[in-house]
Amino acid sequence: MGPRCWLLLPLLAAALQAQQQQFMEYVERRLTLLEERISQWHDQSSRYSTELRDFKNQVLGMLETAEKEREAMRSEAESAAVRVDRLEREVDYLETQNPAPPCVEVDETLMEKQVATAKQRKNEKYTKLTDCSDTIANVRAMKILKRFGSSSGLWTKDTAGNSEKIYVFDGTANDTVYVFPRMREFTLFSSTRKAARIKLPYPWVGTGHLVYNGHLYYIRQQGPFQVIKFSLANKTVVDSSVFPAEEQIPVFGLSPFTYIEIAADEEGLWAIYATKEDEKNICLAKLDPTSLDIEQMWDTPCPRENAEAAFVVCGALHVVYNTRLPSRSRVQCVFDVSGTLASEDASLVYFPKRYGSHSSMKYNPQERQIYAWDDGYQITYRMEMKKKLEV
Hints:
- By secondary structure, the protein is α+β, with helices and mostly antiparallel strands.
- Helices cover 29% and strands 35% of the residues.
- The strands form 5 sheets. Strands 1-20-19-18 form a 4-stranded antiparallel sheet, with no helix packed on it. A 4-stranded antiparallel sheet has the order 2-3-4-5. It has a 4-stranded antiparallel sheet with strand order 6-7-8-9, with no helix packed on it.
- The longest helix is centred in the N-terminal third of the chain and has 94 residues, at 3-96.
């Protein structure tokens, strides 16, 4: 090795030592920076942990307060339900407390005069009170509301008023009418808990009742067949009349429990009935809703056999027929008291087959639909109309 190399060795050693010193300083700076970041992260983590713990304590406090408020509200709701139940029982009690029934006596002389007057006008052409000239074309829609009560019964609205109340007559012989405030309460509740009760002074028979202009018209069960006019506002008997027809028989062959069907249409009040004198066919009478007098009577060509129900539309009697083994109900006989529509020219209207046969069918002239009771099911039929001249 030459002298020159020996001179370079100290220089190289000094350079290496300087590089090592710089590298160590660089490593120390990086470690210092890393320690600062770790310290900063630790401080932030501690702060976040403290904030999270404070937030958790705050949420737990809010949940505890909400639970206390929920318990207080549940206690208040239970207390309110108890008060509502007590109030409903008190209302039911008050509504069933009717005044003593009035003495309804039969004036035989007046009845004989009514029979004579009605027979004088029997089968005369009817002078219409309105310009109604519609007839049923077909059943446009059917709606099954619910199943309630016995297999036979009646449900209806006031056919001449604006009330939304639903009146329910469960069975064919009873003295208590259920009143639901609206259709909603009737369809939603399966029991009579939401219904008011009206206890009648005399029990009814059949399913031929009618609610008309704030009054209930029904057939008294005991004694002679008597039409009772009962005020729904005052809960008292307003008037009564013995139906002037001797030896009455069930009006419908398939509904042996109904002797008189009270019906309403655009013309007013009607009575559908049958007598032993002409037991094969159905009879029709126009009633005065105020005095219950019979204004006019007709013998119709509509047979009682296999008839299950009937209603009146624009002065025309529509009789619904079925079979002993329930099939599709159909309007097969129409009798127009004004003589403008012959039975053979009327549309043959079929009702969709459901469960059995109808124990009642109430036509509502304001809604143009029928409230029917079919083997315990409450059904509405919406009718499509057309002019009689188009038939």
